[in-house]
Amino acid sequence: MSKKGRILVAMSGGIDSSLAAVMLHEQGYEVIGMTMKTWDYATAGGSRKETGCCSLDSINDARNVAVSLGFPHYILDIREEFGDYVINHFTGEYLEGRTPNPCVLCNTHIKWDALLRRADKLGCEYIATGHYANIREENGRYVISKGLDENKDQSYALWGISQQSLSRTIFPLGGLRKTEIREMAMERGFFDLVNKSESYEICFVPDNDYRGFLKRRVEGLEKQVAGGEFVLEDGTIVGKHEGYPFYTIGQRKGLGIALGYPVFVTEIQKEKNRVVLGQYKDLSRDGMWVSKLNMVKYADLLGKPTQTVTKVRYKDAGTPALIEQVGDKMKVLFHEGVNGIAPGQAAVFYEGSDVIGGGWITASFRQDAD
Q1: Is residue 136 within 8 Å of residue 115, measured between CB atoms?
Q2: Which residue from 67, 73, 102, 321 lies 20 to 30 Å from 256 (Cα-Cα)?
Q3: Where is this site: Interaction with tRNA (predicted)?
Q4: 3-state DSSP helix/strand/coil percent for the chain, to nearest 5?
Q5: Where along the chain do its domains lie?
Q6: What are phi and psi of 276, to 5 degrees?
């Protein structure tokens, strides 16, 4: 056993997770690599070749790194639990008129739990991933903070991880920039990793066509939801749509509506099978409600209204907001209007670079209509 301990590293086959394993190996940890098989292309269908973290090529790339450095590598098949939880949730959210975030859900409920269970079986004290984020212990809590590379920061996707799981997690890349990771890979001869393209698609929707995925997943869906109405914010009917699950808040393209000016999806009314359209200014909301909270920096904020910067999507720069915990929910009041808030997406609250906590957006509102 290494003096630093045994660590299980999640290796997707990409440059980030591979270099995380390389760094830990060089630091003296006893590294065990593990690639998780979350889905298979034959199940998902679609029109493109299998790519991404679950492809055979990616599994082989991860194994090659392990072999070159002389540490063990295993494949962990979690397709059943992934499908039952993440994919069913993904489908269900669209059928409820919401826009899901499966990557956050997978981190929170599948990958970390699966890794820690296997880590225990293999005698590993820690787990590690290639996420660009940091963890520290402060006042008895494990706090996630942004990675040094703001362009690659992934703290938004990690808010749901429990304190117990964070206590055993290491993020080796948190203090590095992507350019440095590429340089390190070049120096060590991992040229294939440097030249490998990165995938930003949902792993089980490799062709990036979630509408096609829903149609294949839910038999008869098109007939169930077809014939609904496009309406303006005042209720004026302006056309027929293909079905409310096939639209998302903020969508402009693919509506098939010509009104002489640009229109966007501003609301989805599942019960009426209606999709509400408005101008860009109509997307703006003053606040929102967030539920299923996971508090990170503080145990709770009951009775402690707090100034934050709140992000409503991964690439969101964040907006100053006052958050107030009401029971098990958070009321968020933005200091300026925020566009395109989509129920079903994650909201993450920041204090400087630190993640205070996060949750799932359930509703947004305008102050004059609250």
Answers
A1: no
A2: 102
A3: 131, 345
A4: 30, 30, 40
A5: 6-195, 225-278, 282-369
A6: -90, 135
Which residues line the annotated binding site? 10-17, 36, 130
Q: Choosing from 53, 54, 124, 203, which is the catalytic residue? A: 203
Q: Give 282-369's CATH code, choosing from 2.40.30.10, 3.40.50.1110, 1.10.3720.10, 3.10.290.10.
A: 2.40.30.10
* Interstrand relation of 264-269 and 274-278 (parallel, antiparallel or unpaired): antiparallel
Cα–Cα distance, 321 to 303 (Å, whole number): 16
Summarize pLDDT for 315-337 with one digit per residue, the tens: 999 999 999 999 999 999 999 99
Determine whether domain 225-278 maps to CATH 1.20.1280.260. Answer: no
Per-residue pLDDT averaged across 244-265, rounded? 95
pLDDT at site 83: 86
Give catalytic status of residue 124 as yes or no.
no
For residue 58, the model assigns a pLDDT of 85
pLDDT mean across residues, the chain = 92
Alpha-carbon gap, residue 28 to 4, rounded angstroms: 6
Structure tokens at 72: 């063990």
> With 50 as the cut, is the pLDDT of residue 358 above it?
yes
**How do residues 84-125 score in pLDDT, each as one tens digit?**
889 999 999 999 999 999 989 998 888 999 999 999 999 999
203 assigned to active site: yes
CATH class for the domain made up of 6-195: alpha beta
As given in the structure block, the two tokens for residue 345 are 């997406």
User: Which range, of 52-61, 221-230, 265-274, averages the lowest pLDDT?
Assistant: 52-61
Confidence class of residue 206 from pLDDT cuts 50, 70 and 90?
A: confident
User: Residue 346 and residue 329: Cα distance in Å, rounded?
Assistant: 13
Q: How many whole angstroms separate alpha carbon 217 and alpha carbon 56?
A: 24
Annotated binding site for ATP: which residue ranges? 10-17, 36, 130
Token couple for 39: 């889905």
Task: Give the pTM.
Answer: 0.92
